[in-house]
Design a protein that fits this description.
The complex is a heterodimer of chains A (277) and B (367). Chain A has 277 residues and is mainly α. Chain A has 12 helices and no strands. Chain B has 2 domains: 248 residues, 3-Layer(aba) Sandwich (Rossmann fold); 105 residues, OB fold (Dihydrolipoamide Acetyltransferase, E2P) (Beta Barrel). Chain B has 9 helices and 20 strands. In chain B, helix 4 crosses helix 5. Classes of the chains: A mainly alpha (277), B alpha+beta (367).
């Protein structure tokens, strides 16, 4: 009892310290995007929207944003197109070398970006392929297949297989069952994987660095500018990205809560069901 | 409501083929998973409109047998016939068999109504017909009010009803039910037993019902098929299986019993200190004697009764009756059932009629 007391007094302080460590830098970043004096000087004074005006007039930044969005969507499509079938194969099919396949699919997840980037660069060189946004798309897409596979595979594992049997029992063919029962139940993991891949691709630097051609992605553009000296314009674009991420997280959360009514029963069934003899 | 049930009845009556009186014939079905032999040589017939229960402990293979009928498992050998149609080898979606799953397996992303309509929509029935049949099926299971609810928003008993409606709306020739009441609490379960049985009588569809609960099997079934370690021990009506158990396993599984091991010699059974006349051939014999067929002797014994002395070991109160364990002279322990509140002396004499000792086959040891 007495041992608990000091801990409960320190807990709030500890929590505040952790959150300060996590979010204070972001708060400072946002604050200085409104500071006329630039990134130097404390406390900031002369709050202004000038840096945002400069940012919105800066075509180079917006080109790189557009490039990043294009790359992210394309990488998402590639990763899902390969990742979903891979997850299905891992969950349902029995084939020789399955354990090896599983490890190979998941390898890019733990492989350092430098290795992935370097090896892809050598591959494209060998193939005589000019570096461009396309090579970045291929790099991100292949590296992120593992993310799509793990997310969708986790969703498949949670799926109540009796539902698919019920569908077959009610006269639906395997194909109809896949589209009417399996896919709707995988909606959340697929959307989750897509969002995750999108974000990972958006701020990817290591692989992009090796594969970049003439056109920059946003992280590389920011990095290039930082080498020339930091300006609050960077703070402004970072603030906008932060706000967008926040909106995306809130949307994702609400989608999840709304779908929860549907997933509840599946989870409950999973807990109580026993394997067939 | 009536139309739905009537339509079901006509359907089953029409399809009754003269060639094969059985709706479903299971012929010598065997199944193993790896080295684990789950079913061995099971043969069983299901008649039109019958309520047949496959009863067995967990691991007896009852669920596997059901899954073979539904088409989710393939038997290693044996045949499945529905009338003159060979069933095995056909995918589940071509069999005119529907299943109520143990945990119902309702589709969580569809409403109650969409769940029930699933089979008809997949079969591309006209929308007007689908709507009408779904409405009738929901009315039949009293779920009309919850038609637009998602399955997660209704209770376990209601989910069970929806699962039933979802299966029956397709007018299957045979309905399979895989321990559908096991997830319900005791009260609701008894209520659903009665509801399910009366529903089955009304629609007239044959039900094959799987359970491990012998009481449930006795209450609901026209016939019980008792499965043990993948083999059928006995297939009979509840009355018959109780009063004329074929094997010692059946006698012990269904209700309480005393198993008496005896030796027949020249028309007389000797069993410890007691003996009685029999028509069995010479040799060892095993008898099942129900506790309610043993009674304390009061005054003169009944004619033809077998009597034995003993003393009271243990009394178990069971409501209207009590189970009394008596150590009989000669080392045998017998259990008898008496009305609650019967006054019994510590040392007493008990008796039973020789006709109530039913000769049973000894069930061989099996894993």
């Amino acid at each position: 009892m007495s041992a608990d007391r000091p801990r409960s007094r320190w807990l709030p302080i500890h929590a505040v310290a952790v959150f300060a460590f996590l979010y204070l830098p972001i708060a400072v970043l946002i604050l200085y995007s409104f500071n006329r004096q630039g990134v130097g000087g404390f406390p900031p004074h002369h709050l202004t929207l000038d840096w945002y005006r400069i940012l919105f007039a800066d075509d180079a930044i917006w080109d790189s944003v557009l490039n990043s969005v294009e790359v992210a969507f394309a990488a998402m499509a590639i990763a899902l197109a390969f990742g979903i079938p891979a997850a299905l194969a891992l969950d349902r099919a029995q084939f020789p070398g399955k354990a090896l396949f599983r490890r190979l699919v998941l390898l890019p997840l733990i492989l350092p970006g430098i290795i992935t980037g370097l090896s892809l660069l050598m591959l494209f060189n060998l193939a005589g392929k000019r570096l461009s946004l396309l090579t970045i798309v291929l790099g991100h897409g292949t590296a992120l297949i593992s993310v799509a596979t793990t997310e969708v595979f986790a969703g498949l594992q949670k799926l109540d297989r009796a539902q698919e049997e019920a569908s077959l029992d009610l006269g639906a063919t395997y194909w109809q069952t896949f589209w009417r029962i399996t896919v709707p139940n995988l909606k959340l993991p697929i959307i989750g994987a897509a969002l995750l891949i999108f974000t990972l691709s958006m701020d990817e630097i290591a692989v992009s660095f090796f594969l970049i051609g003439r056109e920059n992605t946003l992280p590389l553009e920011i990095w290039a500018r930082l080498r020339r000296g930091i300006t609050p314009e960077i703070n402004a674009i970072s603030t906008i990205i932060f706000v967008f991420s926040l909106i995306a997280i809130v949307l994702w959360y609400r989608l999840r809560v709304r779908a929860e009514g549907g997933t509840e029963i599946g989870a409950e069934l999973l807990e109580t069901s026993e394997p067939h003899p | 409501m009536a139309t739905f049930k009537d339509s079901l009845r006509t359907q089953t009556a029409d399809s009754q083929g003269p060639a094969n009186p059985h709706l479903l014939s299971i012929r010598n079905v065997a199944k193993s998973f790896g080295r684990n032999q789950v079913l061995r040589n099971v043969s069983l017939d299901v008649a039109e409109g019958e309520f047949l229960t496959i009863l067995g402990e967990s691991g007896s293979g009852k669920t596997t047998l059901l899954r073979i009928i539904a088409g989710f498992e393939t038997a290693n050998s044996g045949e499945l016939w529905m009338g003159s149609e060979r069933l095995d080898g056909q995918p589940p979606y071509r069999r005119r068999v529907n299943t109520v799953f143990q945990h119902y397996a309702l589709f969580p992303h569809l409403t109650v109504e969409q769940n029930v309509a699933y089979g008809l929509r997949v079969a591309k029935r006209p929308e007007a017909e689908t709507r009408q049949r779904v409405a009738e099926a929901l009315a039949m299971v009293k779920m009309t009010a919850q038609a637009s609810a998602k399955p997660s928003r209704i209770s376990g008993g209601q989910q069970q009803r929806v699962a039933l409606a979802r299966a029956l709306v397709n007018r299957p020739r045979l309905l399979l039910l895989d321990e559908p009441l096991s997830a319900l609490d005791a009260n609701l379960r008894r209520q659903m037993q009665v509801e399910l049985k009366s529903l089955q009588r009304e629609v007239g569809t044959a039900f094959v019902f799987v359970t491990h609960d012998q009481e449930e099997a006795m209450v609901m079934s026209d016939r019980i098929a008792l499965l043990r370690s993948g083999e059928l021990e006995q297939v009979a009506t509840p009355r018959e299986i109780y009063s004329r158990p074929a094997t010692s396993y059946v006698a012990q599984f269904i209700g309480h019993t005393n198993l008496l091991k005896g030796e027949v010699q020249a028309g007389t059974v000797r069993c410890g200190a007691i003996s009685w006349r029999t028509e069995l051939p010479d040799g060892p014999a095993l008898f099942s004697l129900r506790p309610e067929h043993i009674r304390p002797v009061q005054g003169a014994s009944s004619p033809g009764a077998v009597r034995v002395r003993g003393h009271l070991l243990h009394q178990a109160f069971q409501g209207s009756t009590e189970l009394i364990r008596v150590a009989a002279d000669g080392g045998m322990v017998l259990t008898m059932r008496v009305a609650s509140g019967s006054s019994l002396a510590d040392h007493l004499e008990i008796e039973f009629s020789a006709a109530d000792a039913v000769a049973v086959r000894e069930s061989p040891e099996r894993i």
